[in-house]
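Quick question, first post here. What does this chain look like in 3D?
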Amino acid sequence: MDKNYKDEIWIYNRDIKGTSPSAGVVRKVLAYCDGAMCVEHYFETGAEGALHSHPHSQITYVAEGRFRFTVGDEVKEVSKGDTLCKQNGVKHGCVCLEKGLLVDFFTPMREDFI
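> Answer (accepted):
Ran it through. Tokens below.
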């Protein structure tokens, strides 16, 4: 991330330079403050979000594409318009089955993304 947009009111997607946390994935950190953060994750078909957990609650909105998610002990397929609620500390990850975009909301913000 080349600029810190923390606490700014207006964030324009065109101004955000993405980073690649893993092969086939581009992350764009959008609006955020101490209490919340909005992040886009663009996935190529076959790309993976490795199984992990963190001390943040997370809601994921599937804006485009199709994904196979593991959340805790459950594995389900989701597609455009679906949402997931992942509690803090619960292991989760995904595989992109069809090129897509996930919009993630975290509380509190993910300092490790900045």
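DSSP finds no helices and eight strands in the chain.
The two ends are 7 Å apart (CA to CA).
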